[in-house]
Automatic annotation (TrEMBL), chain A:
Gene3D superfamilies: HUPs, TPP-binding domain. FAD binds at residues 203, 228-229, 242-246, 259-266, 280. One of its GO terms (biological process) is fatty acid beta-oxidation using acyl-CoA dehydrogenase. Belongs to the ETF alpha-subunit/FixB family. SMART domains: ETF. Keywords: Electron transport, FAD, Flavoprotein, Transport. Its cofactor is FAD. This is Electron transfer flavoprotein alpha subunit. SUPFAM superfamilies: Adenine nucleotide alpha hydrolases-like (SSF52402), DHS-like NAD/FAD-binding domain (SSF52467). Residues 4-181 form the Electron transfer flavoprotein alpha/beta-subunit N-terminal domain. Heterodimer of an alpha and a beta subunit. Binds 1 FAD per dimer.
Automatic annotation (TrEMBL), chain B:
Heterodimer of an alpha and a beta subunit. GO terms for molecular function: electron transfer activity. The electron transfer flavoprotein serves as a specific electron acceptor for other dehydrogenases. It transfers the electrons to the main respiratory chain via ETF-ubiquinone oxidoreductase (ETF dehydrogenase). Its cofactor is FAD. SUPFAM superfamilies: Adenine nucleotide alpha hydrolases-like. Belongs to the ETF beta-subunit/FixA family. Residues 23-215 form the Electron transfer flavoprotein alpha/beta-subunit N-terminal domain. The keyword Electron transport applies. This is Electron transfer flavoprotein subunit beta. Keywords: Electron transport, Transport. It comes from Pseudonocardia dioxanivorans (strain ATCC 55486 / DSM 44775 / JCM 13855 / CB1190). Gene3D superfamilies: HUPs. Residues 226-246 are annotated as: Disordered. The lineage of its organism: Bacteria, Bacillati, Actinomycetota, Actinomycetes, Pseudonocardiales.
Amino acid sequence: MAEVLVLVDHVEGENKKSTYELLTAARALGEPSAVVVGPAGTAGKLADGLKAHGAAKIYVAETDSTDFLTPQVSVLASLVESTNPAAVLISVSADGKEIAGRLAVRTDSALLGDAVAVSPEGVTHSVFGGAYIAEAKANTAHPVITLRPGSVEVEQADGAGAEESVEVPAAAGRSATVTAREPLAGGDRPELTEASVVVSGGRGVGSAENFEIVEKLADSLGAAVGASRAAVDSGYYPHQFQVGQTGKTVSPQLYIALGISGAIQHRAGMQTSKTIIAVNKDAEAPIFEIADFGVVGDLFKVAPQLQEEIVKRKS
Amino acid sequence: MNIVVLIKQVPDTYSERKLDGSDGTLDREATDSVLDEINERAVEAALQLKEANDGTEVTVVTMGPDGATDAIRKALSMGADKAVHLSDAALHGSCAVQTSKALAKLIGTVDGGFDLVLAGNEASDGRAGAVPAMVADILGVPALTHAREVTVEGGSVSVTRETDDGVTKLTAELPALVSVNEKINEPRYPSFKGIMAAKKKPVATLSLADAGIDASEVGLANALSTVTSSQPKPPKSAGEKIEDEGDGGAKIAAYLVAQKLV
Ligand SMILES: Cc1cc2nc3c(=O)[nH]c(=O)nc-3n(C[C@H](O)[C@H](O)[C@H](O)COP(=O)(O)OP(=O)(O)OC[C@H]3O[C@@H](n4cnc5c(N)ncnc54)[C@H](O)[C@@H]3O)c2cc1C
Ligand SMILES: Nc1ncnc2c1ncn2[C@@H]1O[C@H](COP(=O)(O)O)[C@@H](O)[C@H]1O
């Protein structure tokens, strides 16, 4: 069976959930080989998780290079050449998209970006914030596919996980150098793109302090917190929580929008949510057009009451 | 310093965006087009560097249909010096790899070469968000992407890169490519003077042959990937809507329980 190269997405010595999604998706195309690129000692911490999700091989490229993203590209490019894989799978993130694009250019491969499903025939995309579903196929060998986190249900599988160390080839062109890195503090809440429940606040929340109402409701539901761009631009909530066209795309089981009007650019990031609840004091707000259940009312009254009810049910 | 800004005309996100049912490409007839919002910021960043560095020339480069002249006018009105526009029917349906290769060639046609290429970090239409890094890879120059801040000093460029995963400081020797994010600046409005001046600025409209690109390297028929089908998803319809009468929160809770969501 052909190999499928999976670029391992890891942070602080742990595999991200998206890595397991890639390994699960890869099994539909062939035999998954995990590719670990990171500083010395990285692969040892990741191997068990990779094996438990079906990695037949683990290619280990350990390097202390400060070159920005190009080591990943060079390693994958040399593996594409040596293994002629059925496909290369990378998860959608700022880094993932960049690595994938460069790899496609270097290996003359089709780039199938932002897939929500993969099959031997091709990939499925959700376009324009879910307004369209499109199918696409590669016209080249070893297509480079980026998969949107949260679109595949993780399944465990036993993999041999045979480790093989690989050299990091010298960079093909000049690289940017990393001089400092500050990873975002994750906090205790689930990651926005991985959460099954998301509670978001908009300009209607009114201030950074008031966002506590959104956070409290989210915590009662074990949810991630999101925000509209207006809320982010007004300084109520940090940028990395923005949902929408220029923010994150989320597709949880449940999305609760508090004080969000539902502009088309916001909807682009959340309208594929399975169930949408909206609270807005304006009965004409467009968010109600896509809400399964809408309450026309003051979020400062409705959200705390909802939170109390949830807490009551849980106790 | 010579700065090249990659700009793209995109469908206005306030209007409804459609895919062409026959070939899965963007239906440009059906939508209003504008200069991509983040590209306005890339132009602004270029103009700020020009203001800080005497003798800087800003060239905007775009590949796209005839209508892209509106985007070019906007950038020139803001203060860019000249423009190069690759417009050729054969480009229709080009994939990201082809687009990047064509853009790299197009950049090569700019008089005087470049010290810095500026781009948006992602366009609002396709959200590929990969073209800038791909172009840099082809040009063999460093890519400093998703910049929230950019400084050029003594032949090198440094950026503060901000993404969902955190903040990274990057540096590289020029020539290099930088893509900017939506937080980098507030783009200026073209002044009346700027709009008038733009009318006299040079715009080179190139065909594929002019740019030294072979027709077999671009276009739908030669694309490395093909959209095989596209369908509008039935829009989500509105469900129940109630007026809060003091029990709105409780009613939501009851709905969630009924749907087995809590
Ligand atoms: C290129 C581009 C990209 C964009 N990308 C994004 C994006 O990624 N994400 C995004 O969200 N937006 C994006 N936008 C912005 C978008 O157009 C809207 O401006 C934004 O979504 C509005 O946010 P909002 O709903 O919080 O604010 P508003 O539209 O101001 O709505 C606030 C709502 O709160 C309600 N409200 C006020 N007080 C209360 C209360 N006490 N109780 C209940 N309801 C109350 C009001 O009735 C109103 O409906 C983008 C725009 C452009 C041009
Ligand atoms: N056809 C094009 N012409 C000029 N610049 C482009 C084109 N396509 C993409 N770009 C540049 O690449 C950036 C990211 O686009 P994308 O990768 O399509 O999301 C844009 O903001 C532009 O700066």
